[in-house]
Amino acid sequence: MENTVKEVQARVESDGRVVRDVLDEVGKVVVGQRSMVEALMLGLLTGGHVLLEGVPGLAKTLAVKSVAEALDMQFQRIQFTPDLLPADLLGTLIFDQRTNEFIPKKGPLFSNIVLADEINRAPAKVQSALLEAMQELQVTLGDTTYPLAEPFLVLATQNPIEQEGTYPLPEAQVDRFMLKALVDYPKRDEERLILDRMVGGVLPTLKAHLDGERLMKTRQLVGEIYVDDKVKEYVLDLVRATRDPQEFGLSLGALIENGASPRATIFLVRAGKAHAFLRGRGFVTPEDIKAVGPMILRHRITVTYEAEAEELTSEDIVRSLFDHIEVP
Questions:
Q1: How far is it, in rounded angstroms, from Cα 177 to Cα 327?
Q2: Which of 45, 80, 250, 303 meets the CB 3.0–4.6 Å disulfide criterion with 245?
């Protein structure tokens, strides 16, 4: 086992450089917002879809476009609107008069990286169509199902403060997003750099460092990163505490309507591996789980009306879990 960990460590140190090059390349355009860019990279390294939530003007769309530009893969941006139709995403069948047959005209989902901009502006039919692609990695046109090319990743943005003309995402679809990253305002010195760079300046053209084949091999390496049994037990304690907090001495039972599903357990370990990879390690520590935990759990815990009356959010509950669950 020790030799295996050392072998993985050596490969992580060598193969991790190209991913760090992508991060540095994106940093030429996106000022600050390191946690948001890392969330996008965690999704790329694990194949998990990412939801970015923040007020307008925080470079969410710019960050996704910059990451896509630093990757040698097919990229499509879809601006979600209330009048969007499923065919606008999936494509449709067109009748060919020469052959008397229907031929498929594939939509923008047939790409490697799809930016779903302001995803909560689309109606339920569009969300349902997107759900099949996100979960099953396939699209159905007529009576034929077409597999999507790997890698396939949905990177979505949404505005949390505007309610008019929006459709709250169904819980089933929110759960399909591996990570939900909250994007905050930049620091003062970062905002000054944004001002200097964006006013009268020209954004640099980014160089592509990573193609799809290399990314798939990197994902395999991330999957081989070692996770100790104690770390696995720690993950199980965190997730089970969302369902039965009293078992762990937490008085949160009246505040949690629904806890996290087993999908959260799987995603915590996967994201922990990817976080360790970005730090150049071939093994996962509890600190990796702590770093990715809020992004995995915040959208998988439903709070009760009592919690809302006390102005408590799922974010507060997640913070309590990490404060009280014993770290191995």
A1: 26
A2: 250
